[in-house]
Design brief:
elongated, mainly beta, 681 residues, four-stranded antiparallel β-sheet, 61 strands, 44% strand, Neuraminidase
């Protein structure tokens, strides 16, 4: 059986299974990008008012909102670039968020608009509102003259005016909690204070433990220095029962805070924040530990992974969790580092990642791109677009269709589908082609599993206006999936009018009107054509093998058949330039009408083909001539090969010599010209 060759390091394979993984997508227009949906920014707080409606805030002023239980997220404009650390949502309209550099923002319309109420010289770690008028914000003032004090802010008019309350503590005030307008507690460093008169007077309790500060030399110290404001918290259930987490340990009081006793300690968990509702209390960091009564604690999630077996340079990796909330007894959300969004439906026994990795990402410039994602949990596929460089993605179109059976079918799951029963259709895309910021084409298909064979509908979607509207330009009827009759694997446009598509059974389609009408061209083969590309209106190539996208076979034979076709008249006539058994070809690039490369695989090795005479002769590059893939070109001199997550090969002399270059992971979109400029130095 032919096996597809994958280029990936062992470490990245392991990480992809345990840590939110940032996929990287490169296009031959030079834009490189890695991201998750809906964001890659660290998330620090979550609040759901109902199982459907919720908000998340985090780094770089990120605010995300969902109204469908997290299936889709909308980015709301916060008006700030500062990290938002704490969130207080009172009802569907009114809410606040606070964060670094003393920023407090407010919404009165459900997040459609956020207004900055305050910016002071302080870092705010906690914002807490008793109602829509009275609230508190706490944190730490920025150092002045070598010292800093805790910041304590109070409002009685919904934040129109914030009053700074003078307080004796010199420490960061990490948490504040009120059970009514008069009775509340605050945590400053390792000291606890209580008020019985609405905050006019604060009395110190009998707990005093100095919390540790992260070491900047530790492997995660730089990250936790930013998070240090959040490394302690305090909550109360009523006037007597309360909890504090400080120094990673949990303490409990049953007398309103006069006396405290340690009830949970784990040196590796480093607990730092609380979540409290009527049923449970939870403490979080790289773990989630919960208790129904506050005395017996159990771990419902652990995000620490030990990679020391890989060598001395690897160690335990902690995935930081910034916020958690239970919506009901079984359903809960957790958010954290690198855009982490998780959901459980069984009280924490099993957590599902909701920040899906993007597929097919195609950037047009530094800001604008399209991509798609598949949400297996909801059986949906989304077309997404970003206009801010990938910081946030908006769902432009969702596919969540079903099919009604006209007779009895045996599904691949073993269940028998009755007549008139419906089953979900899965949608996937083989290719995204983007011409400019307005015009894009998606080639895809829909299918459902059935015993023996599947049915498939293949189609081409187009937007002429940046994704405001999508129309189906072309559809091939449902056919047997096992032979891939009617599947479209690739699409290419030379300009707004001239385009081609290729696919199964030797399929080549051509349009001269931007896809309004498509005509079939005779390829002379029944092999799956995986890629099609034109240098100009006349000269083009199509390549393939009987292995289709996803690794499926296009014929009943198990022997791959690689083929290179060429045309010099726009596709009116296609001729075979190269053909070989036990080969599958899957990538094609060209420098000009004469110079081109093809990438493929044999049963055990990668294969690179090269021509400098328009394809009259194709040379198999081996040994020192061998490359890691078919190159892309910025111009006739500068080219690159995207080998894997961190490795590139670059050339500055039309491919005569190649240089290996390693890059660091990046959050933003970047252009390959940056790397080529470094290669020239």
């Amino acid at each position: 059986m032919f096996k597809r060759h994958l280029i990936a390091s062992l470490f990245l394979i392991i990480i992809a299974n345990v840590i939110p993984y940032e996929s990287i997508a490169g296009n031959c227009n030079g834009w490189i990008f890695q991201n998750h949906y809906p964001t890659s920014n660290t998330l620090m707080a979550v609040k759901f008012l109902t199982p459907k409606k919720g908000w998340v805030v985090g780094d770089a002023g990120t605010i995300l909102h969902t109204e469908d239980g997290g299936e889709t997220w909308e980015a709301q404009e916060s008006g700030t670039a500062q990290p938002l650390i704490s969130l207080a949502i009172i009802n569907e309209k009114v809410g606040w968020a606070a964060g670094r550099f003393g920023v407090i923002i407010h919404t009165s319309d459900g997040g459609k608009t956020w207004i900055t109420q305050l910016e002071i010289q302080a870092d705010l770690s906690n914002i807490y509102f008793l109602n829509d008028k009275e609230g508190w914000a706490v944190g730490q003032k920025m150092p002045l003259s070598g010292s800093s004090k805790g910041a304590l802010l109070h409002t009685v008019d919904g934040g129109q005016k914030w009053e700074e309350i003078d307080h004796e503590t010199e420490s960061n005030i990490a948490g504040i909690y009120f059970i009514n307008k008069q009775t509340g507690w605050l945590l400053a460093g390792g000291d606890i204070y209580r008020t019985l008169d609405g905050g006019r007077k604060w009395d110190r309790s009998n707990l005093s433990i100095k919390r540790p500060i992260s070491s900047p030399n530790s492997p995660i110290g730089a990250f936790f220095q930013m998070m240090d404001l959040m490394r302690a918290d305090i909550v109360f259930k009523d006037e007597r029962a309360g909890w504090v987490v400080v120094g990673g340990d949990v303490y409990y009081t049953n007398d309103g805070g006069n006396e405290w006793s340690q009830i949970y300690s784990s040196p590796h968990d480093n607990l730092q924040r609380f979540y409290l509702d009527d049923e449970r209390i939870c403490a979080i960091n790289s773990v989630i530990v919960c208790s129904s009564g506050g005395k017996d604690w159990s771990k419902i999630y652990d995000a620490g992974y030990d990679f020391s077996w890989l060598g001395p340079d690897y160690r335990t990796i902690q995935i930081w969790i910034g916020g958690i909330q239970f919506v009901n007894e079984g359903e809960a959300w957790a958010v954290g580092a690198n855009g982490l969004i998780m959901k459980t439906n069984d009280g924490g026994k099993r957590w599902n990642l909701k920040n899906t990795v993007l597929e097919g990402t195609h950037f047009i410039n530094k800001k604008a791109a399209w991509a798609f994602r598949q949400d297996k949990e909801s059986n949906a596929t989304d077309i997404l677009k970003t206009e801010d460089g990938g910081k946030t993605w908006k769902v432009q179109k969702r596919f969540k269709d079903s099919i009604k059976f006209e007779s009895y079918w045996m599904l691949s799951s073993g269940k028998r589908a009755r007549k008139d029963e419906t089953a979900p259709l899965e949608t996937t895309f083989n290719k995204i082609f983007v011409l400019d910021e307005n015009r894009a084409w998606f080639a895809g298909h829909q299918y459902y599993a059935r015993n023996g064979s599947n049915l498939v509908k293949s189609f081409i979607l187009h937007t002429p206006n940046g994704g405001e509207t999508w129309t189906q330009q072309f559809e091939l009827p449902k056919q047997k999936w096992s032979k891939f009759w009617g599947d479209i694997g690739d699409i290419f446009f030379l300009n707004a009018h001239l385009g081609w598509a290729s696919g199964s059974n030797g399929l080549i389609l051509h349009t001269i009107d931007g896809g309004k009408t498509w005509q079939r061209q005779k390829s002379g083969t029944n092999i799956y054509l995986t890629k099609i590309l034109f240098a100009d209106a006349k000269k083009g190539w199509a390549i393939g093998g009987n292995i289709a996208p996803g690794g499926y076979y296009d014929t009943e034979e198990d022997t791959p058949r690689g083929i290179v076709l060429s045309t010099s008249d726009g596709g009116a006539h296609w001729a075979v330039q190269w053909k070989k058994k036990e080969v599958a070809l899957d990538y094609l690039s060209f420098l000009d009408q004469n110079v081109a490369w093809v990438q493929g695989e044999t049963d055990s090795n990668a294969l690179i083909l090269y021509t400098n005479d328009g394809g009259k002769m194709w040379i198999e590059l081996t040994g020192e001539q061998s490359l890691s893939g078919a190159p892309c070109w910025l111009d006739k001199k500068r080219g690159w090969i995207h080998v894997d997550e961190r490795n590139f090969q670059t050339t500055l002399d039309s491919g005569k010599t190649w240089k290996k270059v390693k890059v660091q992971p990046r959050r933003d979109s970047w252009h390959i010209s940056e790397l080529l400029e470094k290669s020239s130095n």
